[in-house]
Design a protein that fits this description.
globular; 11 helices; 327 residues; alpha/beta
């Protein structure tokens, strides 16, 4: 696939570029059999070039977005429909089978979703990170009258804010350090934006929530200090939802969970239903994430204007879009 154009977002690959291999396998992956090096890119859209035998609902020229989930379809989790929790899971662009920075690649039919005519290919590349947030909110106990704290104003944190807005949340609090990302948080719908280097996050959350704290915290930062604040800032019988992929083990004050009857849960990636629901929300205009794309570059600019820009000018960027057939 990827005939004329393909678009890939870089931010999700930054950790692998900086200090990988993290998710990239160093021993043969159980499904793909591949090891590092692999072609990066798991947030992407493109155009079908040709289809294989038996595929009758796609044709050359169709605009599609790729769900990069790799799963065995045979384990207990997969049989329950929880492909994101497959015991052998991985992702295209992380554990093999090509990736978004490939000019052409072959993918299973189950991984492709049609893009509606009114959703540009560039926006299609945002479906993957939006689906991560959509899934997290969807499986959480969130209700529209809940107060919510979001840790981190990066791509996933901002996607959570947007998802909460579509679900009718009327009090979204974001904890973020960098000035530009604070602005993004406000732009996408946060009602309050706090700075953990200046604000007492726990005290401010309690002050904003009738002295009790928030109903739900979504952790999109993966920082120990933030986790400590999240547990304390969440009200009794509230829920802390971890979305972040941590770079090192974290510690939890279990007694604070116990005596407050608080819940701590994890969430990972998405299901096919989440992907389609995000595409539908983009098409209907409920989700408008286009401003998350802060730069557009060509394939031959990936290192200098892509990865290095995210390293040295991180505060100015959310997502950098790569036009794969553009250089």
């Amino acid at each position: 696939m990827a005939d004329d154009l393909a678009f890939e977002l870089l931010y999700g690959n930054l950790h692998e570029y900086l200090d990988g291999a993290n998710l990239i396998p160093t021993t043969p992956h159980l499904i793909t059999g591949e090891t590092a090096p692999v072609t990066l890119g798991h947030e992407f859209s493109g155009i079908v070039e040709e289809v294989g035998e038996g595929v009758d609902d796609l044709k050359a020229g169709d605009r599609v977005v790729i769900q990069p989930s790799i799963y065995d379809a045979t384990c207990g989790a997969c049989k329950e429909g929880l492909i994101n929790c497959c015991y052998s899971n991985g992702g295209i662009g992380l554990v093999g089978w090509g990736g978004g920075l490939s000019e052409h690649f072959v993918v299973l039919r189950r991984s492709l979703f049609h893009l509606p005519d009114n959703v540009p290919l560039e926006i299609g590349a945002l479906v993957e990170p939006m689906a991560v947030a959509w899934h997290a909110v969807k499986i959480s106990p969130f209700r529209p009258d809940d107060t919510v704290l979001v840790l981190g104003g990066g791509p996933i944190g901002l996607a959570v804010v947007q998802t909460l807005k579509t679900r009718g949340c009327e009090k979204i609090i974001v904890s973020e350090v960098t000035p530009r990302r604070k602005e993004f948080a406000k732009h996408f719908g946060a009602h309050y934006v706090l700075d953990p280097t200046k604000d007492d996050i726990v005290a401010r959350c309690r002050d904003l929530c009738d002295g009790q704290g928030v109903n739900i915290t979504f952790d999109a930062a993966g920082v120990q200090a933030g986790l400590n604040q999240a547990i304390s800032a969440t009200k009794v019988r509230g829920t802390i939802v971890n979305i972040a992929v941590w770079q090192k083990p974290a510690s939890i004050n279990v007694n604070e969970l116990v005596f407050g009857e608080k819940k701590y849960m994890g969430t990972t990636t998405y299901t096919a239903d989440d992907y389609q629901e995000v595409i539908n929300a983009l098409s209907s205009g409920k989700l408008k994430p286009e401003d998350m794309i802060t730069s557009k570059i060509k394939l031959n600019e990936v290192e200098e204007k892509g990865f290095k820009a995210l390293i040295h000018d991180k505060d100015s960027h959310v997502k950098i879009l790569v036009e794969v057939h553009g250089g």
